[in-house]
Design goal:
Strand content: over 45%
Number of helices: 1
Number of strands: 8
Helix content: under 10%
Distance between the termini: 59 Å
Radius of gyration: 21 Å
Length: 110
């Protein structure tokens, strides 16, 4: 899960470990709900039994992104198996919209 303002981005890492008894290729694919906001660097990796690696996942919002929650999964696909990594992106309202302020100039009278 990540909270972002419109126009912000963040990178994080996901650790993958091969718990199978043979070398496997793993592919990480964001589902269609979050694909406009999430990308995976080095989307496909091959791991020997017991081997692990870190994969960078980036989340980005655009200035035009409407605030709200985007929920989906990053599918981890290997051979005939799919595991789902739940992923949530909450786009916050910009601060200038969330806080209203006003200023009054006070002039001393003589």
């Amino acid at each position: 899960s990540v909270d972002l303002l419109p126009g912000e981005s963040v990178n994080t890492t996901v650790e993958l470990r091969n718990t199978f008894n043979q070398t496997r290729e793993f592919t990480l694919v964001p589902d269609s709900t979050i694909a406009p906001y999430v990308s995976v660097n080095n989307q496909t990796v091959e791991l020997a039994p017991g081997e692990s690696t870190r994969v960078t996942v980036s989340a980005v919002t655009y200035r035009s992104t409407i605030p709200g929650l985007r929920s989906g999964t990053i599918d981890i696909v290997t051979d005939d198996e799919v595991s789902e990594l739940p992923t949530k992106i909450r786009v916050l309202r910009p601060i200038d919209e969330a806080i209203s302020t006003s200023t009054t100039l006070i002039r001393p009278t003589v």
